[in-house]
Amino acid sequence: MSAVSLLGALKPGQGRGWVIAVPYLWFFIFFLVPFAVVLKISMSTAEVAIPPYAPLFTVTDDGTVNLALHFGNFAYIFSDPQYILAYLSSLHYAAGTAIITLLIGYPVAYGIATSKPNIRPMLLMLVIMPFWTSFLIRVYAWIGILKQNGLINNFLMSLGVISEPLNILNNQFAIYVGMVYAYLPFMILPLYSNLEKMDHSLLEAASDLGAKPFRAFLSVTLPLSLPGIIAGSMLVFIPAVGEYIIPTLLGGADTLTIGTVLWNEFFSNRDWPVASTVAVALIVLLVGPLMLLQHYQGKEGEKA
Amino acid sequence: MLMASNDRFQPWADLSAEPQLRIENVVKTFDDFTAVDDVSLDIYRGEFFSLLGGSGCGKTTLLRMLAGFLAPNSGRIFIHNEDIVPLAPYERPVNMMFQSYALFPHMSVEKNIGFGLQRDGVAKDEIADRVAKVLDLVQLSQFASRRPQQLSGGQRQRVALARSLVKRPKILLLDEPLSALDKKLREATQFELVNIQQQVGITFIMVTHDQEEAMTMSSRIAVMDKGKLVQLGTPSEIYEFPQNKFVAGFIGSVNMFEGPLVDSEVDHASIDCHEFGGPILIGRSVSHGLGHPTNVAIRPEKIRLAKREQPLDLPNKTVGHLKDMAYLGNSLVYHVVLESGKVLKITAPNLGAHPENEFFRDEPVQIGWNANACVVVES
Q: What is the DSSP letter of A31?
């Protein structure tokens, strides 16, 4: 009764405004404000001070307020090949990870979606279960598996398949193993939720009209799961671009990614302005794929 | 158009005719539930055949076995003497129109219809040609490039029909093809579907739970109940001579009387019915022995209702009171209580106001029917 009268007291549309305000406020406080701070620092210069950068606004004795915007950092990171290479290598790892997780995740998601409904929750639980262990510990565990006298090498040597231990840690291969392992659930879950909704009678119709099972998959299942493929790929690609821990722990000392560059600028060089510039450039770089994701999710929403 | 009775389409009456589809002792069980229980049927080329029954009677299971989505536990299915049970759905010369239509949402109407032809490796020009023709047949030519989501329910239904017809299957299977349409559209579509079937000359096998729909459209109807085939016949055979109580009650409505057989001659018989308050005369011979409990069914429209004082020259007649009546526009429904307490349902055409056919609630009335109106049914 009281809830009804409360709702009645609101003008039409007013309640909706309040509900929408919450996510906007969240977005404002936890994304826009910090981003503005980072953007501000990126247009400053490094100083040996606390904080370690020059203020944007300075007030002179005669009361003049000077605003010094420094765009040199942006010119700098695009002129130094190290940053370009770091961006390219991060994109390369992220794209590779997205493709490999898609190739592994699609059959897994398809398998779960077509399994008996009573075992589906258990299979999904198995996909999610690794999250219950600390991410850092799981990445460290891979060192134990991949190192010279680690699990894989010891096993293969004891079988006599190899005589020398394989060099599978501290290189690209190890980074891919770690990234694919860590991001696979982010591919499987959206794909599963898409494939699980698939109308089975569409496949029956395709079969009835003369399509063999694989043809029916290509003509019906695959195109209809495109929104799931895109959502999964974005969920893997976007965080993978900025990944720091996996390349650092599994890729060896000389691995060059955006994540390692950011760390070096912030903590080794204490050059916050350049580090902030790198971060801003990364966000700008990711806005494109994000908008693509939004577009496809919007399209899927229309259909539902 | 009137036809001489020997020109009528009834290949099932011709003993030398080969059935196009032969279903032989087909059984399908799910765990411990028997969905289809030893069904045998012959269906002939060009028939519009209906599988009729309530939900869970096994009609859809049988249709899905014909399409190849389910395999029978035992029994065989032949099309022109070829056993099709080992064939996958994509190898069978049948197509199905799905109850949900199952149109591909990511393809245009044209692409949906052309899909089956593409799978058969038909040349592009021919696909375009055949798709255009079938779109014309279902009057959807101007919607060729639309997506299914942009069409109305009736239009989608016609796209589904076109898609299953364009491959010219030997047999078209229709799973409740009209159930998603509203009443008016359904009635119009019934005739349209029959017209299209006659134009293309393909055998149609339709599953439906709607007895009126089955009666309107079919050349023959198979009534199913609890997985078994209970009666097979033309719509009029099934309506006029239901074999048992279930069929009599499922197809239209019916009044039932029961009593021991007291007289059985070559051209008539009678039962002694306590509820009726005397003997009921049946206008044909009854095969089982005297004293045997016998069920007699009488359709509501075959019972005459009259005022008490009116003369009523009918062999079966008794008195009662009018309990309820309903006005349906084109007809009237009366409920009459007999002296035994039995309630009879009677329908009468709306003949217009006249003192002789104006009745009032609780009015004493008499009812009666002809000996030929009685049908003996099994329980």
A: I
